[in-house]
C-alpha cells in the first residue's frame, strides 16, 4: 500500500495521479500531490515505478489483483462465437 509521498523529492508532476487505477492520489488546490484514499490502494506499484523522482514510498505487502483490462478481455472472450 502507498505509505507516503516524499515532499522533498516530489515535483508534483502528476504522473502518479494520472496512472493510479483507483484514484488514490490527487492534486490539491495548491498543486501538490497528496494521498486521498490510502485504504483503496491495492499495491499495483504503477505510481512507484513511473515516478521519475522516486517520491512514492510504499509499505511492504502483497499486491491485490485488479486489472480491468483483463476482466474486459474475459468478457469479450465469453461473448465471442466459438468455432
CATH architecture: 2-Layer Sandwich
- The helix tally amounts to 3
Question: For the residues shown, what is the average pLDDT?
Answer: 83
Structural class: alpha+beta
- Helix-strand topology string: EHEEHEH
- Write down the Rg: 16 Å
Helix percentage range: 25-40%
For the secondary structure, the number of strands is 4
Total tally of structural domains: 1
Distance between the termini: 43 Å
Broad shape: elongated
Question: How does the major sheet shape up?
Answer: 2 strands, antiparallel
Could you tell me the CATH topology label: Alpha-Beta Plaits
Order the strands across the largest sheet as they lie in space.
1-4
CATH classification, class level? Alpha Beta
Describe the protein in words.
The strands form 2 sheets. Strands 1-4 form a two-stranded antiparallel sheet. The protein contains 3 helices and 4 strands; from the N terminus they run βαββαβα. It has one domain: Alpha-Beta Plaits (2-Layer Sandwich). The mean pLDDT is 83. The radius of gyration is 16 Å and the shape is elongated. By secondary structure, it is of the alpha+beta class.
Concise overview:
This protein has 83 residues and is α+β, with helices and mostly antiparallel strands.
Write the layout of secondary structure elements.
Blueprint: E1 2-5, H1 15-19, E2 25-27, E3 33-35, H2 46-50, E4 56-58, H3 68-79
Antiparallel strand pairs: 1-4, 2-3
Amino acid at each position: 500500500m502507498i505509505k507516503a509521498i516524499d515532499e522533498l523529492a516530489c515535483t508534483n508532476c502528476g504522473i502518479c495521479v494520472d496512472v493510479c487505477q483507483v484514484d488514490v492520489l490527487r492534486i490539491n488546490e495548491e498543486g501538490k500531490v497528496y494521498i486521498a484514499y490510502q485504504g483503496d490502494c491495492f499495491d499495483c506499484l504503477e505510481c512507484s515505478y513511473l515516478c521519475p523522482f522516486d517520491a512514492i514510498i510504499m509499505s511492504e505487502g502483497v499486491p491485490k489483483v485488479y486489472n480491468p483490462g483483463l476482466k474486459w478481455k474475459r468478457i469479450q472472450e465469453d461473448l465471442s462465437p466459438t468455432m
